[in-house]
Structure formats: C-alpha cells, structure tokens
C-alpha cells in the first residue's frame, strides 16, 4: 500500500527552507499575481477591441488625446493587434511558469516524488492562467468592451512598439500561410450550405429562419421561370379597349401595373401604371390612354433572379415580362415574386385570400395544380430536388403529373412516384385543376 497523502506531502517540504526564502516567496507571489493580471489584460483587450461595433468605434475615436490614436491604429491593423497580443501573452505565460516553478522548488523538495512536482505545477499554473488569465477577463471584456478598450488601448499600443520586430516577423510569416490557405480555400456548394443549415438545432435556428436561410443560399441558383406567374394567370389589358372599358377592367383586376397587349399576350405593347390614370379620371370613353404606356421590360426564362433583382434596382422597375426561346410571352415576374422567394408568401390588405392549398394532416395536402413545384415542396417541407428526375421542363404540379402520366389523367385517378401518391381531385377537358398529394410517413 502507498503512503497516506498527508505523509507524502510532508515529505516533499524543503528541510532547508529559511526566513530569507520567505521573502523571495512573497515577491514570487506578487510577481505571479502581476503577471496573471497582465495576461488578463492582454486576453481582455483582444475580446474588447475585436467586438467593438461601428457606433462604439466612432465614440472611442472622438476621445481627445492618445486614446483615439491608439484605438484607430489597432482597429485598422487587426493582424498587428493580434500578433502583439499573442506574443505578449506568450512571454507573460512563460514568465508565470518560470516564477511558479522556482517558487515551488524553493518550498518543496521533489526528489522523493518528482512526478508530484510536475503534477502540482501543471495543475496549478494551468488553472490560474485559464481561469484568471483567459476566462474571467474575456467574459468581463465582452460585456464591457467599450470600457476595456478605452483603458487598455494605449498600453497595448505601446506594447506593439516594444515588440514591433517580433510582430513584423510573425505578421509576414502568417501572411504567407494566409495566401496559401486563401488560394487553396474550400468552396462550399449550395447543397453543403443547405445541409449545414438543416442540421442546426431548432433552439439555435427556428424553422422559419432555417427556411429563409435556405432560400438565401439557393437564391443565386433560382431562375425566373421557377418563380414567375404562368401565362394563363397573367392579367393584362387589350390594346383596343376604350377608356371606360379599361377603367372597369383595372378596377376588376386590382393590380397597380398591368401589361397591355394587342391580339394576344405574345404582342406586348407596354405596361400601364394605374397611378398614371389618376389625373384623367374625368375623361370620356374617347380618351387615348395608350400614350400613358411605359416600355415593357423583357427577360428570358433562364435569367437568375439575383441578376434580375439588381436590374430592377438599377432600372427602378418592379415588373418584367418573361419570354421563352422563341420570343413568346411565357409569364410575368415582379419584385414581389423575388422577395416572396426568400421570405415566403406576402399578402397586403388588397390581396384576396386564395386557398391555393389545404393541409389535411402532416403528410397529406391538397394543392391547386397551377402551383409551382418549388412552392409545393416548400409547403410540404421537402427538398425540391426530389422531383428532378421526372419533372423535365415542368414547373407546375400539373405539369409534373403530365410528365408522369404522359396523358391528361381522369378524375379520381392516382399516380405514384416514390413515396408520393397524387390523386386527381378536379380536372376538365384541357387541364388538371386540383390534386391531393399524400406522402408515405417514415420513408421520405
């Protein structure tokens, strides 16, 4: 059996310990406290200076004297700041280890139990440096970053000039590594980012925020065809209408901008802003309203919506006519459609409450067949890539079912794809109107 801990502890006390050694121990303790305080200052200043926001920086830079100069220099040179803190903290930590080791060897004699000296020094020094030199100062400086930055900016600035040769060496060394890492940096794909968002916990990222983040990640990969209003849903005005007929049509439509066409939607003459009609409300039926038309903005189906958003902002426009490869009108896209792609459906007080889908239970929905496949997937909370192999050029749920069946399905017919069952709820002689979508649980 080993000796009792108390007996072992008594055996390691230095028998030659004298009163003069007591004085050196006191100075060692004072030195250790001072060094740990310096370590705390360097660690705290790192958190404080790197967490300052723009407003706090502006407030600190308005302080007269050397403080504003020091803060301005340190925040504008983050690599120099970080190198100064790391080098200074390293020197301080080494000094703490050396002083502590010397103090222990003055008090104790570790010849009997050499391993005990290593354990005591390692545990005590690590505990002191981590708790008092890192954790506590960083927590405090994070909560009081402006105050800490104001107090420590000048001392840190002067420390930089003392350590400038070493800082320059470290800065140049890291810049070489930084260039190599930047050159070989990993580029994350949209799928990887989407997966990263998906695996975050509900506590950290609520479901609605996840949906927005995933929409932002895929924003640059979405083209106009995926979000546009389909041609059958476009509300336009005939070019040959008289003024009274036009006014009735605008009141019925409820839109603030409508395309004007001649004969059919492939011949768009321009876009009419209803606000331009306000000063002409008293005109009779013969009034030539066509002179109020504004030029239409045409975009191809393949245009990415992030590029379209930039063009909308540059041209100060909110509406574009989408054309296919043959120049025919295939749809219409607005600024609201782009915003809804990120934030979901937006309705104002003038929008009608259209029930385009109904949720029967967790895995069963009823959709209008004209709904876009992307929107169907959003409402069902599944990935839009699920239907990639069968959708071909189809953009709507009805188009997807036609791709699956190769013919117009009959009322009540069920179509299957993977874990999905599509039941035709409403259909006429030309198109599918309403579909029930059922997803088998625990297999998606």
Structure characterization notes:
With 444 residues, the protein is an alpha+beta fold. The protein has four domains: 179 residues, no CATH class; 32 residues, no CATH class; 121 residues, CBS-domain (Roll), CATH 3.10.580.10; 83 residues, Uridine Diphospho-n-acetylenolpyruvylglucosamine Reductase, domain 3 (2-Layer Sandwich). It is built from 17 helices and twelve strands. The strands form three sheets. The chain has a five-stranded antiparallel beta sheet with strand order 8-9-12-11-10, with helices on one face. The protein is elongated and about 110 Å long. The relative contact order is 0.07. The mean pLDDT is 79.
Portion in helices: 40-55%
Average per-residue pLDDT, rounded, comes to: 79
The number of helical segments is 17
H/E series: HHHHHHHHHHHEEHEEEHEEHEEHHHEEE
Count of DSSP strands: 12
Q: Provide the spatial order of strands within the biggest beta sheet.
A: 8-9-12-11-10
| Main sheet record | 5 strands, antiparallel
Quick rundown:
The protein is α+β, with helices and mostly antiparallel strands and 444 residues long. The protein contains 17 helices and twelve strands. The longest helix is centred in the first third of the chain and has 32 residues, at 19-50.
């Amino acid at each position: 059996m080993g000796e009792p801990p108390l007996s072992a502890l008594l055996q390691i006390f230095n028998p030659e310990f004298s009163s003069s050694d007591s004085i050196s121990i006191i100075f060692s303790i004072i030195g250790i406290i001072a060094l740990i305080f310096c370590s705390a200052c360097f660690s705290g200043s790192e958190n404080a200076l790197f967490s300052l926001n723009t407003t706090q920086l502006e407030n600190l830079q308005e302080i007269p004297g050397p403080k504003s100069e020091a803060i301005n220099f340190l925040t504008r040179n983050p690599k120099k700041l970080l190198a100064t803190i790391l080098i200074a903290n390293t020197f301080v930590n080494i000094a703490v280890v050396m002083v502590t080791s010397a103090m222990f060897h003055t008090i104790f004699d570790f010849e009997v139990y050499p391993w005990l000296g290593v354990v005591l020094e390692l545990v005590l020094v690590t505990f002191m440096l981590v708790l008092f030199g890192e954790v506590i100062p960083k927590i405090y400086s994070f909560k009081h970053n402006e105050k800490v930055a104001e107090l420590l900016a000048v001392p840190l600035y002067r420390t930089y000039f003392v350590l400038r040769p070493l800082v320059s060496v470290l800065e140049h060394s890291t810049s070489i590594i930084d260039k190599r890492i930047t050159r070989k940096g990993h580029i994350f794909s949209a799928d990887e980012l989407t997966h990263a968002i998906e695996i975050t916990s509900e506590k950290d990222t609520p479901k609605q925020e996840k949906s927005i983040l995933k929409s932002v990640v895929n924003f640059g990969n979405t083209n106009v065809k995926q979000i546009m209003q389909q041609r059958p849903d476009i509300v336009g005005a005939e070019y040959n209408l008289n003024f009274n007929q036009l006014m009735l049509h605008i009141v019925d439509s409820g839109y603030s901008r409508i395309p004007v066409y001649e004969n059919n939607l492939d011949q768009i003459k321009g876009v009419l802003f209803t606000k331009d009609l306000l000063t002409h409300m008293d005109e009779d039926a013969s009034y030539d309203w066509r002179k109020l038309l504004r030029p239409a903005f045409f975009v191809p189906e393949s245009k990415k919506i992030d590029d379209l958003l930039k063009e909308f902002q540059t041209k100060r426009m909110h509406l574009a006519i989408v054309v296919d490869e043959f120049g025919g009108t295939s749809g219409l896209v607005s600024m609201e459609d782009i915003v809804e792609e990120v934030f979901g459906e937006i309705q104002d007080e003038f929008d009608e409450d259209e029930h385009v889908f109904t949720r029967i239970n967790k895995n069963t929905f009823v959709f209008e067949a004209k709904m876009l496949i992307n929107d169907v997937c959003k409402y069902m909370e599944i990935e839009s890539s699920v239907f990639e192999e069968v959708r071909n050029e189809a953009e709507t749920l009805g188009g997807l079912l036609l791709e699956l069946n190769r013919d117009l399905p009959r009322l009540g017919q069920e179509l299957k794809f993977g874990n999905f069952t599509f039941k035709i709820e409403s259909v006429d002689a030309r198109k599918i109107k309403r579909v029930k979508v059922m997803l088998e649980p625990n297999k998606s």
